[in-house]
Specification:
- By secondary structure, the protein is mainly β.
- The protein has a single domain, classed as Rieske [2Fe-2S] iron-sulphur domain (Rieske Iron-sulfur Protein, 3-layer Sandwich).
- Strands 2-3-4-9 form a four-stranded antiparallel β-sheet, with no helix packed on it. Strands 5-6-7-8 form a four-stranded antiparallel β-sheet, with no helix packed on it. A three-stranded antiparallel β-sheet has the order 1-11-10, with no helix packed on it.
- The termini are close together.
Length: 109
């Protein structure tokens, strides 16, 4: 997997997320404290856009704006229903003040 630059450090305010299309995947990149996390931006329950949800900066979670499913941004695990399936997570790195995310090309995992 290749890393792709999606933003500069500081472009995503703490406690917020932004959506980016990488290799035909809509990825939500979230900032939680000084850390960045990348996950599938699509809720596994009703396909809402997670970057539009609220972020808990202490717990590093995002709440789906549609039905309030809560996901752990570090692991993708469901912490509160109605969703039962986790969201995908993707590697993030910071290089030269750039936020970079790696997403497998289509057809690869």
């Amino acid at each position: 997997m290749e890393f792709v630059t999606v933003a500069r450090v500081g472009d995503i305010p703490d406690g917020e997320g932004r959506a980016f299309d990488i290799n035909d995947v809509t990825v939500g990149v979230f900032r939680c404290g000084g850390s960045y996390f990348a996950v599938s931006d699509i809720c596994t329950h009703a396909h809402a856009l997670l970057h539009e949800g609220s972020v808990d900066r202490v717990r590093c979670t995002v709440e789906c704006p549609l039905h309030s499913t809560e996901f752990d941004l570090r692991t993708g695990q469901v912490l509160a229903p109605p969703a039962t399936e986790p969201i995908a997570t993707f590697p993030v790195r910071l290089v030269n003040d750039q936020v970079q995310v790696a997403v497998p090309p289509p057809g690869r995992t």
